[in-house]
Automatic annotation (TrEMBL), chain A:
<dbReference type="InterPro" id="IPR028896">
    <property type="entry name" value="GcvT/YgfZ/DmdA"/>
</dbReference>
<comment type="subunit">
    <text>Heterodimer of a catalytic (PDP1) and a regulatory (PDPR) subunit.</text>
</comment>
<dbReference type="InterPro" id="IPR006222">
    <property type="entry name" value="GCVT_N"/>
</dbReference>
<keyword id="KW-0670">Pyruvate</keyword>
<dbReference type="Pfam" id="PF01266">
    <property type="entry name" value="DAO"/>
</dbReference>
<feature type="domain" description="FAD dependent oxidoreductase">
    <location>
        <begin position="1"/>
        <end position="225"/>
    </location>
</feature>
<dbReference type="InterPro" id="IPR027266">
    <property type="entry name" value="TrmE/GcvT-like"/>
</dbReference>
<comment type="function">
    <text>Decreases the sensitivity of PDP1 to magnesium ions, and this inhibition is reversed by the polyamine spermine.</text>
</comment>
<dbReference type="InterPro" id="IPR032503">
    <property type="entry name" value="FAO_M"/>
</dbReference>
TrEMBL record, chain B:
<keyword id="KW-0479">Metal-binding</keyword>
<dbReference type="Pfam" id="PF00481">
    <property type="entry name" value="PP2C"/>
</dbReference>
<comment type="subunit">
    <text>Heterodimer of a catalytic (PDP1) and a regulatory (PDPR) subunit.</text>
</comment>
<dbReference type="InterPro" id="IPR001932">
    <property type="entry name" value="PPM-type_phosphatase-like_dom"/>
</dbReference>
<dbReference type="InterPro" id="IPR036457">
    <property type="entry name" value="PPM-type-like_dom_sf"/>
</dbReference>
<keyword id="KW-0904">Protein phosphatase</keyword>
<keyword id="KW-0670">Pyruvate</keyword>
<dbReference type="GO" id="GO:0004741">
    <property type="term" value="F:[pyruvate dehydrogenase (acetyl-transferring)]-phosphatase activity"/>
</dbReference>
<keyword id="KW-0378">Hydrolase</keyword>
Length: 702, 563
């Protein structure tokens, strides 16, 4: 791919230009001054202590590059900024016989893991090797030890691929091999945003070797963030709060960046899991599940089962399993989904973030009513699905809240909300309130009993009546299961299938799991993983925060008016914006697309981010997708926009607009017809097996 | 291997009713060599003589094998040992009847043989933060005997600091080396324990409480412990610590490692001897303790605690320290003395310990009483007990023992027993940062390779690429092509090293497969490894190697601390 506008800029010159422009606007720059630590008072930045005295300030931005980690830790209340440096080598040569011109294109050879560009008529060539050398693991004091030497033996593979690609360069004379460390983050995305702990402490670091290309945009978003309180785009993927202190171990970072750096030039395939820094947070059932063939994915350090490989079945080796087509786990997930539909499955969902909010008086209810859009003043034992919205009405979090008693609530949010949601709640709680907020994520193991026979399994394990009359949907009861008492049983699943969530104090987890599995045998119980869950929830049009929903999407844009109680009598955050939106209409609408002419076996699969075309015009992008084993079609979720044909301006999207379009989903250049729906396929909820389909094998235990 | 095989043992192959299976399996050069055997003394060939001859075929000029000195002619047993025409006939005869055997092994097959017994242990550390002066060890063994008579052990002392590593070379069977490999470290660990800990353990046994663990073993799955004898061994060990408790004068708890090692060796040998004399009501155990006592084993044990390295040696296995000089080259420092006829002071010791009139018979043909190669060993009660005692034990012993002509045979000129001791010679060495590793190996290795080569090969293996000076361009005119050529060359040099993940395996590969140029010759390696069981012993001995790697940073830190 040739990019004619491609350009080369010198980072030093850009920095100087920016600095002089800033100085002209009155910015003071202190040269050769080092920051000792950032001063804070009551959780807010008050100034900076430098080796030349104190500087008072309201905002502080930590852009210390590979030293950002250390600078963050130097605070009284340490701020963890997970990044780690790796040595990075590039080669400089003397000019060619006919020196290269400045319009020589930049060349990237991803297979050879190298880049090549003009440098003073010669070439500059470096790369991202398969075996990186992490550096400065122990911090700044290493500066003196490592004098950043050239390491030719290490550079050999890159040099070989350079000469393989351009053999004529052989005669070029070497000027030098430069060793210039670059910083990498645990997920190859940069880190920006406000610290969850200290107000006014901002971070912009960990650019994964793309600092100069991303610098401009990142700087703009950060500026908006500081001035307006939020950036104009959804930057959750880059938000510092996607990480917690748990990603801050130097050993973890060292190992992870060794995997991240080569990824820069690797083909990135869907559903790829990092291999390093794993098994950090696990459920107490990890070993049990692992022994039963569980394959794992990781979210926020927590291991979650993807699916269970049945005995005797072999999957492809890691490298061979990389694909954009039908993956090798297809049949495995199919049987898990089928079991969820027809019998009962158990899914370990312990990774979910769990908070308890309690108060002595009514503050808990009052605070939650203010923070959440749904009405939480419900009878004890009810569960409410609700969004935690920002001023713009966008989802900061999407969670389920159970009212445990008058003054105590149990809140379940997505796994990666642990830091963000905590910070949001803390930020909006009155400092003097006697509200007690507790993170109980680690205290409970969550098992999802999912499927029509879940009720039978649970009935056998408890004397409490479980029938829908006694235990209707969206209720929470504390009861005993097996020998274990005090299990929080909730009549809900995260997929729309019938079933229960069991929140089990961790010491009972193994007992409850064993009982469930042994009792469940006669109902054909089996383990299932997140891939089955994903297929189930997407075919039922369940949007997930972090994938489909973000800070810029409102409940009205995804058909969740029912979860917003504008008239609950509390002026909750985002209410104003929603009122306005209700009046003016929405500019995008979440829809579900069922692919019609897509061949699951032969065509490339949709994963996410595929363009949506309405009547041949671009209308948005998909946010998640899965194969629905029930519909036997691929299902994508995505937002439909209405861009004016003439101006490109966004216009109001009505239900009618969505329904009357002809849709196509573009997968890698090939368009597939799709039917858009604003509501789930009704037949999925009334699925019953027809009599003539029953087989003898259905009578077997599974 | 170091024993003089008893006449019986040598007689067996000759008188055996089934012909040995060597002929078709032999490569051409070895067949040429067979006529030579007839004129040689067989015991001379045991061990390395064949091997050396093999080398002789490759490079005649260098043929001055040490083993000529080590294995002196032995006319007394010539009758037993001369295979005469029998051997030749067998080889000839077999040629007609046997189907040709596939002889060459592929590199993967060679690797699977070499790696079958390899074991590596890394002292647990968390990302470079390691407080132990030992980084870990690699060990491996290659059998020549069937079953192998070498044993190895490695364990961490749990109640005191330090790590124990040892190689044991058995002779006249593997019973003794097996027993020593299981038991010796417990004796050493107990000898090192302070009085209170001993009391605590004894009280725990007495009151049926859980015992303090003493050793953490690091074992290859093939390194087994005898279940049957476990109780018996424990009782003997307990008696030992009870005596230690009783003997305690309460003066100081400063335990001298050297003394502890010597006491442990002597005590274990004494227990082996006593157990055989007392016997056991269980007939299996009874036979076992007798087999242990009548077979023998040498032992070379290292105890590493911080910078303090003690090597206790009994017999002719060897401990070698790999030292890296400032210029990056390697030199070998021997940390043990072989106890055999090549050791003047050992000869002197033996002569002093026995009356003058035995001066000529005590060591004959470089062997103890003309029979035993090592001058110190565990077991071997034939060289320790009085004739009366030997006869009494054998007569009252089980039939299997009575039928065994080797055990019944009393050494010639046996006047003033004991002739043999298990007392080790202990050498202390204070580790320095330049001491990179320690090799413990049975004589199977040292017979085939010079110590300097051994240390160089392991040193280069362990340091890998790092020993190569980094390249710097600074100031020279170098083109990309030239640099690429240089780097490719350096890489190729390294790739041969990466074939093995275990330093001991790497060393065995060299020991067995080295050609006259000092590089591994696959064809030779393949031939050596495909020798049939019955023949392997004629070309090489059991080889057992432990390579312990030291952490120079920790050693350096110790040094700085104390300065």
């Amino acid at each position: 791919m040739h990019v004619p506008e491609d350009a080369v800029v010198s980072s030093a010159d850009v920095a100087l230009a920016l600095a002089s422009a800033a100085s002209q606007n009155g910015v003071q720059i202190y040269d050769r001054t080092s920051v000792v630590h950032v001063m804070t008072k009551k959780g807010e930045v008050t100034g900076v202590e430098t080796d030349k005295g104190q500087i008072e300030c309201q905002y502080f931005v930590n852009c210390a590059g590979q030293w950002a980690y250390e600078l963050g830790l130097s605070n009284e209340e340490p701020i963890s900024i997970p990044l780690h440096a790796c040595e990075h080598f590039y080669l400089l040569t003397r000019p060619l016989e006919t020196p290269l011109q400045s319009n020589t294109p930049n060349i990237v050879d991803a297979d050879g893991r190298i880049y090549i560009r003009n440098w003073q008529g010669g070439i500059l060539s470096g790369g991202f090797e398969k075996t990186p050398k992490p550096i400065f693991t122990e911090g700044k004091n290493q500066l003196e030890i490592h004098n950043l030497q050239e390491d030719w033996d290490h550079f050999e593979p890159l040099l070989s691929s350079l000469l393989r690609r351009m053999p004529d360069l052989e005669t070029l004379e070497i000027v030098k091999l430069v060793n210039c460390p670059e910083t990498f983050t645990p997920d190859m995305r940069c880190i920006m945003g406000e610290s969850p702990l200290v107000k006014g402490y901002y971070v912009l670091a960990g650019m994964n070797s793309a600092g100069l290309s991303f610098g401009g945009g990142a700087g703009r978003y950060l500026a908006e963030w500081m001035v307006d309180g939020y950036p104009s785009e959804n930057v959750w993927e880059l938000d510092l709060k996607r990480f917690g202190a748990l990603q801050s171990s130097r050993t973890f970072l060292r190992h992870r960046v060794m995997e991240v750096m080569p990824l820069l030039y690797d083909l990135k395939v869907p559903r790829w899991d990092f291999q390093t820094g794993r098994q950090l947070r696990t459920s107490p059932l990890y070993d049990r599940l692992d022994a039963q063939g569980a394959r794992w994915m990781e979210k926020h350090g927590f291991e979650r089962p993807k699916y269970f490989v049945p005995p005797g079945k072999d999957l492809l080796a890691l490298e061979q399993s990389k694909t954009f087509y039908k993956p090798d786990w297809f049949d495995i997930v199919e049987s898990e989904v089928k079991c969820c539909k027809e019998a009962v499955c158990v899914i370990d969902m312990s990774s979910f973030t769990k908070f308890e909010i309690t108060s002595t008086g009514d503050q808990a209810l009052e605070t939650l009513q203010y923070l959440f859009s749904n009405d939480l003043d419900v009878p004890v034992g009810h569960i409410v699905h609700t969004g935690m919205l920002n001023e713009g009405g966008g989802y900061e979090n999407d969670c389920s809240i159970a009212r445990l008693n008058k003054r105590s609530f149990f809140m379940i949010s997505p796994t990666d909300q642990q830091v963000h949601c905590w910070a949001w709640l803390k930020k909006h709680m009155r400092l003097d309130s006697d509200l007690i907020l507790e993170d109980v994520t680690w205290k409970y193991t969550a098992l999802n009993l999912i499927g029509p026979r879940a009720v039978d399994v649970l009935s056998e394990l408890s004397y409490a009546p479980i029938t829908p009359d006694h235990f209707p949907s969206l209720f929470c009861k504390e009861m005993s299961v097996g020998y274990a008492n005090g299990i929080r049983v909730m009549s809900m699943t995260h997929t729309g299938e019938p079933g229960f969530m069991l929140y089990i104090p961790i010491e009972y987890a193994l007992h409850v799991y064993n009982e469930v599995m042994s009792v469940g045998q006669k109902y054909g119980i089996r383990n299932a993983g997140y891939y089955a869950l994903r297929s189930l929830r997407i075919e039922k049009f369940f949007a997930f925060w972090g994938q489909d929903l973000n800070t810029l999407t409102t409940p009205l844009e995804c058909g969740r008016e029912s979860r917003v109680k504008l008239d609950k009598g509390v002026d909750f955050i985002g209410r104003e914006a929603l009122l306005q939106q209700r009046q003016n209409g929405v500019y995008k609408r979440l829809a579900m697309f069922v692919l019609d002419d897509h061949d699951t076996d032969l065509d490339l699969w949709p994963w996410w981010g595929e363009p949506i075309y309405r009547n041949g015009l671009y209308a948005g992008k998909t946010t998640s997708s899965a194969y629905s084993y029930t519909l036997e079609r691929h299902v994508c979720l995505g937002f439909v926009h209405h861009f004016s044909e003439n101006t490109g301006e966004e216009q109001v999207v009505t239900a009618d607009f969505v329904n009357r379009g002809e849709y196509e989903i573009d997968i890698a250049g090939q368009r597939f017809q799709a039917k858009a729906r604003l509501y789930p396929v009704a037949s999925l909820y009334t699925h019953k097996r027809r009599k003539e389909d029953v087989e003898l094998s259905d009578l077997h235990g599974k | 291997m170091c024993v003089c095989p008893g006449p019986r043992r040598i007689g067996i192959p000759v008188r055996s009713s089934s012909p040995p299976l060597f002929s078709d399996a032999m490569p051409a050069p070895t067949q040429l060599f067979f006529p030579l055997i007839r004129n040689c003394e067989l015991s001379r060939l045991y061990g390395t003589a064949c091997y050396c001859h093999h080398r002789h075929l490759c490079c005649p000029s260098s043929y001055v094998p040490q083993s000529h000195l080590r294995y002196a002619p032995h006319p007394a047993y010539a009758t037993f040992c001369r295979p005469k025409e029998n051997w030749w006939q067998y080889t000839q005869g077999r040629r007609y009847v046997s189907t040709p055997q596939k002889f060459h092994l592929t590199p993967p097959q060679v690797n699977s043989i070499l790696k079958a017994n390899e074991y590596s242990f890394k002292v647990p550390e968390f990302d470079g933060k390691n407080v132990s002066s030992v980084l870990g060890f690699d060990s491996n063994q290659l059998p020549a005997n069937a079953p192998i008579e070498d044993r190895r052990s490695a364990a961490t002392c749990l109640q005191t600091r330090g790590m124990l590593l040892g190689v044991f070379d058995g002779h006249a069977g593997c019973a003794c080396s097996q027993a020593v490999s299981e038991r010796l470290f417990y004796y050493i660990a107990v000898s090192l324990l302070p009085h209170e800990t001993l009391l605590e353990i004894e009280n725990a046994v007495e009151s049926g409480r859980a015992l303090l663990p003493i050793l953490q073993w690091h074992k290859h799955p093939n390194d087994y412990f005898s279940k049957e004898a476990s109780k018996l061994y424990f009782n003997s060990l307990r008696t030992y610590w009870q005596e230690l408790i009783d003997l305690n004068t309460g003066e100081s708890d400063d335990i001298d490692v050297k003394e502890a090692l010597i006491n442990a060796f002597k005590r274990l040998d004494n227990d082996i001897s006593l157990e055989a004399q007392v016997g056991d009501p269980n007939s299996f155990l009874n036979y076992l303790v007798l087999r242990v006592a009548f077979s023998g084993a040498t032992a070379c044990v290292a105890h590493v605690d911080g910078v303090n390295l003690h090597v206790a040696n009994t017999g002719d296995s060897r401990a070698m320290l790999g030292v890296q000089e400032e210029d990056g080259s390697w030199s070998a420092v021997t940390l043990s003395n072989d106890h055999n006829a090549q050791n003047e002071s050992e000869l002197e010791r033996l002569k002093l310990e026995h009356p003058k009139n035995e001066a000529k018979s005590v060591v004959k043909q470089d062997r103890l009483l003309g029979l035993l190669m090592p001058f110190r060993a565990f077991g071997d009660v034939k060289f320790k007990w009085s004739i009366d005692l030997q006869k009494r034990v054998i007569e009252s012993g089980p039939d299997q023992l009575n039928d065994n002509e080797y055990t019944k045979f009393i050494p010639p000129n046996y006047y003033t027993p004991p002739y043999l001791t298990a007392e080790p010679e202990v050498i202390y060495h204070r580790l320095r940062p330049q001491d990179k590793f320690l090799i413990l190996a049975t004589d199977g290795l040292w017979e085939t390779m010079h110590r300097q080569d051994v240390v160089r090969i392991v040193g280069e293996y362990l340091t890998g690429m790092h020993h190569q000076q980094p390249i710097a361009v600074g100031g020279y005119k170098v083109t990309l092509g030239q640099m690429h050529g240089l780097l490719t060359e350096r890489r190729a040099k390294m790739s041969s090293v990466f074939e093995d993940q275990n330093a001991a395996t790497h060393l065995i590969r060299h020991a067995v497969g080295n050609n006259e140029f000092g590089t591994v010759d696959h064809e030779r390696l393949s031939k050596m490894l495909s020798l049939p069981e019955e023949l392997a012993r004629m070309y090489r001995d059991d080889i057992t190697i432990i390579v312990v790697q030291f952490n120079s940073h920790v050693v350096g830190a110790y040094q700085n601390q104390e300065q």
